[in-house]
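User: Modeling request: complex.
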Amino acid sequence: MNSSLNSFLVSGAFLVSISSIAQKDSRPNILYIMADDHATQAISIYGGQLGKILPTPNIDRIRKEGAVLQDCFCTNSISTPSRAAILTGQYSQKNGVYTLNDKLDPSRPNLAKDLQAAGYQTAMIGKWHLGTEPTGFDWYSVLPEQGKYYNPQFIEKGSYVSGDFDQTQKKTIEGHVTDVTTDLSLEWLTKRNKEKPFFLMCHFKAPHRSWEPAERFKQLLNDVVIPEPANLLETYESRGECIQNMKMSLENLNSRDLKQPIPSDMSRDKKRKWAYQIYLKDYLRCVAGIDESVGQILKYLDDNHLTENTIIIYTSDQGFFLGEHGWFDKRMMMDESIRMPFLIRYPKEIKKQQRNSSIVLNIDFAPTLLDYADVNKPHEMQGKSFRSLLRGESVARWRDAMYYRYWMNDDGDHHVPAHYGIRTKEFKLIYFYNESLGKSGTGSRSLSPVWELYDLRKDPHEMRNIYFDVKYKTVVSKLKIKLKKLREKYQDKE
Ligand code: SGN
Ligand code: CA
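Assistant: Request completed. Predicted assembly structure:
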């Protein structure tokens, strides 16, 4: 060894250089992008007919270079409860957020707090919708309540002192909410402390009702006839009274939703078809804005050499009916409503162009992200990490069924009945118990309970309730036993 190298090795310079390498945290950054009400039917990689009308190349890129989950479901298909389940890794009955009117207790443990404690720099930008101050975030800039589409207001970290969080001092930012959310996210990424790995939740408001696109997308699809789902004109006669009484069919959309007066002289079917075209075009125009923004965010990562060591996720707080069964909105346990898009890119572990069909739930997101960050799953989380599934490994005893529950019995607008049920790969058994159970924001309507069973292999669009078909008697008994076990497992006693 020459003497100058020898003296370098024993000098402090060498020690400093070793320790600065060791200090550099190589754990992956996490960029969690979530839209509001973006259904898989409107993402081209999921293969539906709408994806051909409005391709989503930027969102699809995440899967082109990563994986897509085919059967990712939310446990309660409505915003506030789904967001609470994502952050806490728990069902509504465990985290206390059952309905749109409940607020997340800020003192509860959550994913952001766990990542922050583990050395991540954390931020939350966009739609929050949990009613109390976001906790666990070094920075937040969030929409009050649902937020506005044009010139939205934001509540920034530091401005909240006490009282009703959503009423706190707000800052108005000009522009369309999708663009503003993107700009705020890129600004935070630029200014962040680059020594630490980051966890950014970028939550878009679009394409939520009332589907208001940015000016530059307003003429998009003008000359296109949007293909209709086969069951657009469903009549519900074979369904229970509680479903017949719902107000979620497209003919119930109002002039604010459709941005024009509603003709009074149209038959039900004609009105539904007419409303469908207007509704879908505005919805897809909002999706075009999201896809463009995802492209901008991915470009930022590319340009800043962050793409390889960042886990990128694209999802939505729940699914949405895009005219299937004649409906808009979500809430119901039908697949269009409970299925969440989930695309993930992390080339260090996830091979390109994967499609995984295991049943994954929103309560699994927090345990999975903690797993990637090398943090042990906190005991209170009910979900499971699906990191191994994404690596392509087969996981022994992965769930073969999911438990779902929607607690809002008749919200006074959509009139969807409270229900719970079980979904396996083959069947779905639903119990519309139709009671409010004193939950906040639910009505006092009381209709007869109804059971429904669907054979998803023969009837993927859930059109034929076969609960009373004797051929399925054994299936029903077995599913009821399984449902009871899941209710026990997830501590649902009500
Ligand atoms: C608003 C919408 C509803 C929607 C809820 C919940 N009405 O109240 O149609 O179901 O939000 O949506 S609107 O006319 O005010 O837009 S969620 O995604 O936040 O759960
Ligand atoms: Ca939503």
